[in-house]
Amino acid sequence: MVASHLVTGAEGEDAAARHLQAHGYRILHRNWRHGRLELDIICTRGDETVFVEVKTRAQNSLQRPDEALSPAKRRSLIKAAQHYISRADLWDRPCRFDLVAVVRSGDAYHVEHIEHAFDLSESVGGGNTAWQPW
């Protein structure tokens, strides 16, 4: 038997992917992994590569989905993106990190897409981070 929070998370990621596609994003990968690092969704819109973190919570949860994007999680996402961009040789393309916050209410999922979810300079300690996280 699969734990209910895993089912909720998977269904939230499905809702996030549908939302992104409906808004013109092309999904390249879901649950992309490099060792222990993971990116929930990697997609493109225009010439921009978008790394999407999906956070799903039940409506009665004590924590909102966006509150789960901690500084440690941000650093992990940046490391994962560095590996992805190296492997795909995408250093010359603009990229950003988005958050899709999903709240489950019964069988319904409310999706909120937050573009440019975090400022990269706060996550990596400053520097010129106009479009690349390193």
Structure description:
With 134 residues, this protein is an alpha+beta fold. The chain has one domain: 3-Layer(aba) Sandwich (Trna Endonuclease, Chain: A, domain 1). It contains three helices and five strands. The protein has helices at 4-22, 71-88, 120-124; strands at residues 26-34, 37-45, 48-58, 95-105, 108-114. A hairpin with a 2-residue loop joins β4 and β5 (108-114). It is globular. 28% of the residues are buried.
What fold name goes in the CATH topology slot? Trna Endonuclease, Chain: A, domain 1
Class in CATH? Alpha Beta
Strand order of the largest sheet: 1-2-3-4-5
What's the N-to-C terminus distance?
A: 41 Å
User: In CATH terms, what is the architecture?
Assistant: 3-Layer(aba) Sandwich
Number of helices: 3
Specify Rg, calculated over alpha carbons. 15 Å
Largest sheet: 5 strands, mixed
Helix content: 25-40%
Order of helices and strands: HEEEHEEH
- Return residue spans where pLDDT drops below 50 for at least 5 consecutive residues: 123-131
Percent strand: 35-45%
Tally of individual domains: 1
Quickly give the structural class.
Answer: alpha+beta
Mean pLDDT: 86
Coarse shape: globular
Number of strands: 5
Key terms for this structure?
134 residues, alpha+beta, Trna Endonuclease, Chain: A, domain 1, 31% helix
